[in-house]
Amino acid sequence: MKERNDGGIKCSEIVEVLDDYAEGILNAETTKKIQNHLRSCENCANFGARYVALLGLLKEQGPHVLI
Ligand SMILES: [Zn+2]
Fold first, then answer.
1. Percentage of the chain surpassing pLDDT 70?
2. Does residue 45 lie within any of the structural domains?
3. Which has the closest alpha carbon to 31: 22, 21, 40?
4. Residue ranges near ligand 1 (ion) with Cβ within 5 Å
5. Is the whole-model pTM more than 0.85?
6. Ligand 1: centre distance to CA 58 (Å)
7. In a domain, 67, yes or no
8. CA of 49 relative to ligand 1 center, distance in Å
9. How far apart are the CA of 39 and the centre of ligand 1, in A?
10. Cα 48 to Cα 42: distance, rounded to the nearest angstrom
11. Inter-residue contact 21 to 31 (CB < 8 Å)
């Protein structure tokens, strides 16, 4: 995967903060950077959408969905 630097944040950084992003606990500046990156980077957009969907599922159904 090619590392991109869209929206002032790199793909490798996206992966690190995606957890906090999904939780909605990041500051406004970082949130905006991530949103800009996801809009222009297809890789992170796909990965991010799946990750957030999975996290939402886990919260809704509880950890037992993993078993
Ligand atoms: Zn990316």
1. 90
2. yes
3. 21
4. 4, 11, 41, 44
5. no
6. 24
7. no
8. 12
9. 9
10. 10
11. yes
